[in-house]
Amino acid sequence: MFKESVEFNLQNILPSLSVRAVTGSAFSQARYKVKPEVFRDLLEFFKEPYCGLEKKLWKGHILLAGDGSTLNLPASKDIEAYFGVHSVNQLGTKRYLARALLIYDVLNNFIVSGHISSMKTGEKTF
């Protein structure tokens, strides 16, 4: 979880990955261009190799953990159309939120499943 500025973290993390450093502004602008489907496709891409791996087990079982969270979303017409407006403050500023859920294989360090939905979907339903 970033507690420092995006710029600070980029300057510290990217060089250790042998990647050219970029400005915080460039990073922020570029992340808006990432299509949500890329995350679904990445999960699908790695699912088959994961299924074929010999897994570490706990008492003969795969140990899974689920974690739900609330995400603050940037303002855009597409986000408003899909997720809706969660709230509007006194100044008329709209707030967009989404509910996210990840299912994680604890012993094998792999996200097995991930979902994102509007706040209308309750955590128990998710």
Radius of gyration: 18 Å
Strand content: 25-35%
Secondary structural class:
alpha+beta
User: How helical, in percent, are the residues?
Assistant: 25-40%
State the separation between the terminal residues, measured CA to CA.
23 Å
Q: What tags apply to this protein structure?
A:
126 residues; four-stranded antiparallel β-sheet
Care to describe what's here?
It is a single chain. Helix content is 31%, strand content 25%. By secondary structure, it is an alpha+beta fold. Strands 1, 2, 3 and 4 form a four-stranded antiparallel beta sheet that branches. Helix 1 crosses helix 2. It starts with 5 loop residues before the first helix and ends in a 9-residue tail after the last strand. The mean pLDDT is 85. It comes from Fulvivirga marina. This is Transposase.
Brief overview, please?
With 126 residues, the protein is an alpha+beta fold.
Which helices and strands occur, and which strands form pairs?
Elements: H1 6-13, H2 24-31, H3 37-52, E1 64-73, H4 77-83, E2 87-88, E3 94-105, E4 110-117
Antiparallel strand pairs: 1-3, 2-3, 3-4
Helix pairs in contact: 1-2
